[in-house]
Amino acid sequence: MKERTGIERLVNYLFTHQEALRSAKAEQAARMCILDEIGCGIYGSRTQEGAGIIKTAAELGNGGEIPVWGTGVLLTEDMAAMVNGALCHIRELDDVHYAILHTGAVCVPSALAVAQRCGSSWGQLLWAVTAGVEVSVRIAEGMDFLDHRERGWHGTATCGAFGAAAAAGVLLGLDEQQMVNALGIAGSRTGGSWAFAADGAMTKRIHPGLAARDGIVSACLAKNGITGPHQVLEAADGGIYRMMSRQYCLDVLDAVKERAAIEEVEYKWFASCKSVHSPYTAAHEIFKRHGFTDAEKIRDVRAEVNQSAIEMAGGTYRRDSVVSAQISIPYGVALGLMGFEGKAADYSEERLRDEKILAVAKKVRVEESEDMNRLRREEKRSAAKVTVQWKDGSTDTETVTAPKGSMFNPLSKEDITGKFMDLAGGIMGEETAREIACIALKSNASDSVMEITEILKRKK
Asked: 3-class SS at 447?
């Protein structure tokens, strides 16, 4: 018997372990994922960058029936998934997995768009999102995802299209062979670099959306008989694992795990790159002990983090770029030391112009720590140690290994619902936002998704 390729092994696992992956805990996690992403997307639709993305999509083509959530704009399913995926990621509030992936921003927009087209049930939608997250995470874990990031790749973009293809494929009813082709096609289109960090460009925003779009197109092509490379991961010439990571292991793709990947997803409490959360939290704890300290009284601030965090967020920020602030540990530490909450409002253009924040941020040195490297690789913790030295010679230190929202300090159902209401209530109205939350959290598996998609067509 011919040995299965990596993609064939992954798809076979998905088909043969569906019952285990669709546990009650996984279903609840999928509901949380959907609600959280819808809130992030609605909030993102009212930003300046969001308006530009929506305008571009509308100019490129319209005539579809899939809503850009909460805007009244209708697009084709691939374009709507692209826009909604980008909107979810605009304020860095969307979920994250320790394999350095924003899974929901890719899988939820693609699944909701295809579910509306197919008239799917909530049970089908929940499975599609669960399957999409499973696939994207396993693709990432099959390689050295820390090395993948340090080489300059953005995992949400490179691995996301696989997840979107799986989510769309579930709803389109692809058989096992068609799903293999869908993932092969998606893999042949994958890409996305971290170059945006050099000048604070907005391309990071659109990476999840482009992955969502490409996943839908890949699944549709596969359904209509187009084949994809079955060795897209490990091919000697062009296999993405060989190109994108120093090492890889295909056994991870069909290894039996204790829980579905969607149960490992972390929901953000702070509007920044995950690598900023622990340094920010440590700084905020120091603030709570000492109160506000003027930059003139600070001699030095040292933030010790893992190497991957330095690669992603170790640099300073540009005062004309929200993106650069969201991926800046010095900015996050300055926010914490000054008592700000680290929420979306703290990553506004107005806040970036604050001279006091800049003065504190300039005092922050970000350094690699072997302890933090060990925690990242062995325990999957993105931890940090922050030490402040004042000019009078006194110091204070705080170490954080489990910031709020991490796997080790997860948001509760009430936290996620409250976050959704904060993000969506002011835009859609409290009544409509509560209606969305109720459907997402309490709908029966046999209920149609059309009810929620019709609500998402509304514009206040």
From this structure: coil
